[in-house]
Amino acid sequence: MTVGTKAPRDSAARTLFRRPLEHFTVRSALGLVAIIAAGIGFGILLALVRFRFGPLYDLDHGVANEVNGYVADHEGLLDVIRFVTDLGGAMKVWVVALAVAVLLIRRRVRLAIFVVVSGLGALALEPTIKLLVGRLRPVVDVPVAHAPGNSFPSGHSLGSFVVYGSLLLVFLPAVPRKWRAAVIAAVATLVALVGVSRIALGVHFVSDVLAGWLLGAAWLGVTLYAFRLWRREEHRREPALTEGLEPEAARDLKPAPTERAVLPHPFVESAEVLVGWVLVLGALFGFGMWASYHADGTVLAYLDTAVPRWFAEHRTGLLDGWSHVASKAGDTHTILAVSLVFSTLVLARWRQWRPILFLVLVMVGELTLFLASAAAVNRPRPDVPHLDQNLPTAAFPSGHIAATLCLWTTIALIVMARTDAWWRWLTVVAAVVMPLIVATSRFYRGMHHPSDLLGAMMLTALWVGLLYVVLRPNAEAVTADAGDDLQHQDRGVRRVARHPA
Prior knowledge:
transmembrane, PAP2/HPO, Phosphatidic acid phosphatase type 2/haloperoxidase domain-containing protein, transmembrane helix, disordered N terminus, Vanadium-containing Chloroperoxidase, domain 1
């Protein structure tokens, strides 16, 4: 009886073992074929470029001249192309840094290593091959962009393929299955547009872009294959590419997997926010009109005249440069960049959308209140030489100071309620120091009166206070921390169960 049932059981066990082994072998073979094909394609293209193959040479130069002739006459199109090409330039480095930070916060170290290794490899390959090939960039009739170094292969095409491809593979498990095809298509379109933008700007030939894609595909294939071998050594199954690198990490990769409703009564809160916005605008308009046109003979009017003049009389070349840098800390680009980075890190750490919504509404409200009140009050700039020219808005209130106050105050409010770590006090320091730096620079550059600073402070206090009461951004802060700790403990228990001592 025992002997009769043993053979079928052994056969079934061998079958169950053989199936994943066969799947792994087939997929690995197909992956190697794809890597080799991309490498061979790159090698053939390199040889054709090196030996100046006639048809390819004519195609490269013909497309470069035709596209340049069209693009040079469309300034609006050029702005779009420059924005797209920036997504494949320095911006992708910040994207990688932010993605790695998120993965480390979520304790997915293996995936963070994959992203870093893939990116560093692309960073090393580009200048090395460019130096070996030594191909000059296109020469077009109307240069619309400039790029240093050699041409072959396109570093933007190579880097965008590797960076956005690796991030797609990492975060794909967090995307619902019905949306995965659309997300893959979107990333492929982005990579294609970055390559096309380099041709449109006249800094690369068609063959440069194709070579960048082929080399990127080959390198990403190598890192992907190495990652799969890593999983195999730990006896983990090999997922299909449409499942991403680690399907079991899906929950950790989702932005807020267990959050309850962001707003309990969205229509009520929306109405309260809209009414509050109107009231804050009314307060700003009233104070702005008084300070700008009806405060003669008051201490505030004296300061509005004396402070800008004092700063203008003490200008030096060195301070002019420093004031320019300090003023940039409150401009739109800096505020937007800090907001995006902080929002991503908050979402990674606390897995809640409510504080992100709070920050977004604070900054959107600040911008709209500033623009509306500046247009309504229409206050002239101080009567001193201005170091910034052709500004599109009036003096009251200071947009730079208001944006800085709102941003860093909001950051401090969110962080202080969510952690007991010593570094939380740094956000309070920043909420005080950063606005002072920006305000001083704006006074120095002759762009604002002291009452413009008071208007920015009024905007911040009323608007941030209103949203804090209505949205309650830290209502579930304690619950989120407790839930996060329990998840880490549960993950540790599962890890011990898989690999007992």
